[in-house]
Each structure stands twice: as structure tokens, then as C-alpha cells.
Amino acid sequence: STSNNPMNTGTTTQHQQAQAFVDNFNESYAAKHEAFENQFWGTKMALKGTNESPYSTDLLSQTKKEMEDFLSDADVLVKAKKFCDEIQKQDTDSDTVTDTTVTDTDLWKVLNVIIRTCQCNEFPTPEAKSIREQTNAFEGKLEKDRNEMKLGYTNSKGEFITASSVGLRTTMRTSLEESERQSAYDGLRSIGDFVCDHPQGFLEVVKLRNALAKKLGFGDYYDYTVQNAEGFSKAQLFEILDGLEEGTRPLMVKARQELQERHGPSVLQPWNTGYMMAGSVVKKMDPYFPFSKAVENYMRSYAAMKISYAGATMTLDLLDRQNKYSNGFCHWPKPAWTKPDGTWVPSITNFTSLADPSAVGSGLTALNTLMHEAGHAAHFANIRQPSPLFSQERAPTSVAYAENQSMFLDSLVGDAAWRAKYARDVVNDQPIPFDIIEEEIRSTHPFKVFQLRAMLAVSYFEKALYELPDEKVTPDNVKALADEIELKIQGGLSGRPLLSVPHLVSDEASCYYQGYTLAEMSVHQTREYFMETDGYIVDNPNVGPTLAKSYWNCGNSRPFLEIVKELTGKELAGKAWIDALEEDLEEHIGKEKKEYEDMIEKCRAAAAGDGDGAKEEEDDLDLQMTVKFVDGDEIISDSSKLGLLGACREFEKFVADRVSVAAAN
What we know:
The chain is α+β, with helices and mostly antiparallel strands.
């Protein structure tokens, strides 16, 4: 008789069976991924939905469960491993010598990524699966209630002003009145009270996450998350972070002393630090970073670096509003991938920020968010692999790998060369004077270590939190722990209280922050590489193609540490970052001034070159993508109808109208 087992059939049939399995998996996963991401976007953006496309936290939990059930299906994992073993055995047993082994093929790669991904989502017992489902339900309810929480501050007239967490941080950075800054800080602190005191809230989620991790054989949830995402243990991670913490502690102590000497002891109050560090320079910079031009400037900057979005469609919801999720993010309902017949599936991207166009500093904040989230979008749009699993942002995709791309690109906004070209006063069309840039450098460069310490604080807090025994996970203990970590790592209470950081609550972003720290290490290493090879980064046409080839195309098929070493020629380390923090202030200003003057000269030469350079630049702006600007359920503009710059103009008009209405009220 003939066996029905595909492993007993001929090689061709075996490959056909394996390919059919892979094809079916890819299509099924893509559909479930898209259903979940649509709910993620709809609930986070507080969209109304329709009868055909409703949005709810129940549907979010349901679609997430369906996607996770699919990825945790033991039968799928068994089949993938079986096909993989047979293909590898065939390669070993083959008498035929070829340049390409079977394990180099797309089929092998996809089977391998299915195994890696399913292992990250493995819930081997009904009890483990039940814990996961209960956690999802609690998280969904908590996030919805957190989004609907009434936040704000009391102004100097005694009026309560509604503001999101981003709005509160802007008030702390820009308000002239200390009472307003302190009230905004108290508003941020209230988030910690809300999530900790919430019934079936954050503390229950922490206990459930730990229970799941322990069922799966890990010490705690942090260890589980790090091993899935980065491929190494929590202990190994904190060897790296401890080295960075110890190496920069003297810089932090010195910076806090210098800050106090400059501004007096009140500067160390968490609601004063950011404001006093920036001083009046934030307001001086504001005209050169108009919110209305933020999107166009990001697009022009990316286009000059020859960054392409490979046919992607991007939906941008950039303005703050009530009930909207309180953090910028970029997600992909449709990951980019290449089908077996060579058909390219371009990505579909949703990306959001929380801009208040009328607030001082909103243009610069929006620009930083755009450059960051658009970096994620460019990265994931350019992953060219034979399965959507290579281009989805969850484990086994490294957090550090994902954040490296976006943080490298948003770092450009701080460069004097970038500002010389793109930071312009829209009224007089003049570049930002270097005097203002120098003032900002003098007020911030000695204190850049604070950003590093703030990143570390989140990781050290989550480490300590998930190491607490369940009986110690109480509102008072967790709030005290957050303050204790801020004092230990940041030297004092933080202007961004740890319990206000939205990543802590959100499933896909919890135990995530170490990714920013590892990524920042690689950002400095990557910047160093471009400066050594090309001498410049801003508007460098080699940047886009180099990033695509070295960092983007591979997706999660290669380890993060490996690709950083391959491009930069060095193991990932904190040296380049610490060198930047330790750079002498006057030397740093001298370098930035030269780069500023060089870019001003380049711009003059380009303008004088053929008289209509501006028109050419407009005609040549092609990022190979379609952009839709939305505000919740309202579609503002669509580049498929108006072109990229036309869509930007419509968005500018929408923003101007909104600012006028706000001013009139």
C-alpha cells in the first residue's frame, strides 16, 4: 500500500507539499495579522467604525487571540519542523554538488522563520493559553480606560486645561509659570495612580504576565520577552546595561551639579528641569520649525537621502485629540513581502503622533516623531523576504533592530547641517541662524546624558517590577519602586514619571525599552561609519541605499548584532555614544558650525545653479509611496489624487484652519 505520509513520497512531491504548507501559512497569517492590526488602529485612534468594519476592545482581543492561536498551533510547529528536518536531511544525503544548498532556498528560510515565530508564541498547555487570553482582556480594558482618562493641568488663572500626556510634557517644557509646570507634572503623576489603582489593571496584568512566563519555563516575564525578541537572556542584557549605567553615572552626577550651578536648586525639581535647560531657546527656535511644514520637510529630507518606500501606502493621523492613544507609533496591517511567483506585496502602514499645532515647540516635536516613525515605515517597507513573518514587528524581530533604523533617522533633526537646510522661517524663508543653534547646544549638550539615563530607568524599573513576588505587587509598593528607580538611575524624580510611560501597559511594548538603549548605541556607531566613509550624513544619497542593503532588506532573518558589525566593522558597544556625550563643548560647537556653514553654501550653490532648482526639487520628490492624511475618521488628503506635495498642502490648510478656530475660541 502507499503511505499517506508526505515524507515518504519523492523529493519533488515533498517539496511541493512543503511549499503548499508555506504558501497556505503565509496567506493565512497575513489575513489574521491584518484583521488584528485593523482593530489595533481603530481602537487606539478611537474610530467610530461601521456595520461592515466595527471596532471594539472585544474585537481587538478576539482578533489578537485568533492570530496568536494560529502562531501557537502545535500542529503548525510540528509540520514546519518535520519539513525542515527532511529538507536538511535531503541536502546532507544528496550526491549532487551545486552552488546553492537546499538550506539556502526561500522554502528553507520560511520554514525556519515559521519555527522561530511559533516558538515565540508557544503556549503548550491550556492553562498557559488561558492566562494569555485573560491578560489580553485585561490589557484591552486598561488601555481603553487609560485613553479615556481625563488628563490636564490648572493654568495660572485657576482654569483646568484638558491635555494629553504629550500636551502635559509640552507645557512642562514651555510654560513660563512654574505653577502650570508643576500642575502638568502632577497630571503625569496621576497616570501612575490610575493604572496602579485600576481594578483588573496594570498590577493584575504584571502578575498574569509573570505567571505565563513561569509556566513557559522562564524566570519572569522580562526574561521571556528579551529572549524571544533579542535571542539572549535578561542576565546578558543587564551585563550590557550595567556597563552603560556604571560608565555614565559620573557624567550624570557632573551634569546635575552643573545644571544646579547654572540655574539654582529649583532646576532639579522634575517640572523645572526641561524648561530651565531649554530656557528661552525653545521659543526662539519655534518659528523655524513650523508644524505645517513638518511633513514636507521630512519627505524632502528622506528623498535627498534616496530613501524609497517601495510602493507602500501610509496613513498618517498626526493631530492630538480626545481619547486618542497617548504615544506615537507605526504599525503595519500589511507587512511587505515577496510571494513565491515574485509578486511584490508592498506594505500598508498606519502611523500616528499627538501634535498640538498651536503649542510652542509643537513643530519640532512633530518633526522628531515624523522622522522617527517614518524611519520605521521605510525600514519595514523595504524588507524583501519570502514571508510576512520577516517584516512583522513582534518577536522574533529584535526591538533594537527595529528602533535602530528610526532613531538613526530622527537623530538628523539635531544636526546643524540638517537645520541649515530644513529649519526655515516660513514668513521670511530664512534658515535658522547658527546663534540660536549654538544657544541650544550650550543649554543641552552637557546634559545629553539625561536622555540615556531616562532610557535606562525604564528598563531597570521593569526588571525590578517583574522580579517582585506577587504579594509585593501592590499599588503603594509599585509607586514607591518607580520613585526609587528614578532617584537611583536619574539622580532625582523624572520629568516623565516612569508610570506614565505607555509602553509599560501595552503588551507589544512592555519590556521593550532596552531596545531603544541598544539601538542608540548602534545609532552612534552607524553615524560614525557614515562620517568616516562619506564625511557627511544629511542629504547623503548613499544613506538610503546603504541602509536598505545592510539593515533593511534582511528583516529578522539575521541577528541584529551581526548586521551592525557587518556594516560598521565593530561589535556593538557603547563607546561611540559615550564619546559623543564626553565631547568637549567648544569642539562640538566648532564641528556643528562648520557643518552648518557647509550646508548653507551647498544650498546657495544649488539655488544659483540653474535658476529653477526649486521646481526641479518639487518635480523630483518621489518616495514611491501613497500618503493619506487623516484625523480620526476624517480623510484630509490623499497623495494618489494630489501628489505628495499636493497632499501636504491640503494638510497644511487643514492645520491652519484648526489653529484659527482654536485661536477664535
